[in-house]
């Protein structure tokens, strides 16, 4: 008789991964602590050992997961900003189920640290009013992704009983060359405007 496998330990990372899977596949409204516990094969209360504030902490963690983006300084501040705008867009498109959290929750933890890093990178490169430049770039990325997700047909379930339309992130066959071109065109214009500010 084969030995019984020990259960996989419950970790914060496993919780977030399972929550992202539910939110992306079924919509944020369907993400409950009970459903998350079922997906992890644990009692819902076990999740609170890793996220003591419960669902509030979970929502913060999901927002942080898709907005804590890092990019190494490049040859120019425009190249650096372009790198983290592209990385931010990719992270948000990978998890459309939590886009609403990224849009509404203020940056905390690693996400706030990423914003500070972005401001420092631009300030060190001599960009005037680096905080305003970072706010403009973040707003552009969030807005562009929101429009892409809306146009893709992916949407939250209407009343909690339906299923969200499947969304294929770019890494799995979604996205389009037109969306990519639109994003780059808008980013070029914004960077040019910031350079001339």
UniProtKB/TrEMBL annotation:
<feature type="domain" description="HTH tetR-type">
    <location>
        <begin position="9"/>
        <end position="69"/>
    </location>
</feature>
<dbReference type="InterPro" id="IPR050109">
    <property type="entry name" value="HTH-type_TetR-like_transc_reg"/>
</dbReference>
<dbReference type="Pfam" id="PF02909">
    <property type="entry name" value="TetR_C_1"/>
</dbReference>
<protein>
    <recommendedName>
        <fullName>HTH tetR-type domain-containing protein</fullName>
    </recommendedName>
</protein>
<feature type="region of interest" description="Disordered">
    <location>
        <begin position="153"/>
        <end position="180"/>
    </location>
</feature>
<dbReference type="InterPro" id="IPR004111">
    <property type="entry name" value="Repressor_TetR_C"/>
</dbReference>
<keyword id="KW-0238">DNA-binding</keyword>
<keyword id="KW-0804">Transcription</keyword>
<dbReference type="InterPro" id="IPR001647">
    <property type="entry name" value="HTH_TetR"/>
</dbReference>
<feature type="DNA-binding region" description="H-T-H motif">
    <location>
        <begin position="32"/>
        <end position="51"/>
    </location>
</feature>
<dbReference type="InterPro" id="IPR036271">
    <property type="entry name" value="Tet_transcr_reg_TetR-rel_C_sf"/>
</dbReference>
<keyword id="KW-0678">Repressor</keyword>
<keyword id="KW-0805">Transcription regulation</keyword>
<dbReference type="InterPro" id="IPR003012">
    <property type="entry name" value="Tet_transcr_reg_TetR"/>
</dbReference>
<dbReference type="InterPro" id="IPR009057">
    <property type="entry name" value="Homeodomain-like_sf"/>
</dbReference>
<dbReference type="Pfam" id="PF00440">
    <property type="entry name" value="TetR_N"/>
</dbReference>
